[in-house]
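Q: Could you fold this chain for me?
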Amino acid sequence: MLDIRTPTVCSDSINIAFEQARDLLEPIFFPTTPFTDDRGWSLMNLLTGVLREQGQINFSTQYPGVIKAWHRHDKQTDFWLCVQGHLKAGIFRESDNQAWIQIIGEQRQGMMIIPPPLWHGVATVGPTSAGLIYYVTHAYNPQQPDEIRRPHDSVEGFPWSIQHG
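A: Sure. Below is the predicted structure, expressed as structure tokens.
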């Protein structure tokens, strides 16, 4: 049976959260605090200390109702920050059938840190598109992608659908 949890929260520093993710081989949620003044708000210095020369920063938009799952990496750690809308992040550790779910987005600001070889993916929740800024520790190589895929419904019992309480 699938054991589903909420990721551990680490608010010490992004470096400590990154180390915890690698050491525990599980996702870590690092809360972010926006800088706010009378002009608006911003998130700053998000990846100070973890950026690597061989890494890459990307942005993607995901439409309502879309599920992008599952995939994993052998080398790359992912850092996800949803800045528009909301995403349900799903992470799965195959070795012990452990899974984690975390809603990330405008009302739950923070960075999901996902080390290899955890399977992961996202589903858009809510009526609007979701915008994801993500940093990967190894740039994408189209000749040798560090990515293995499987269908979104291949983890039995994982609830990609919207949960009503």
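A (continued): Residues 14-24 form the longest helix (11 residues).
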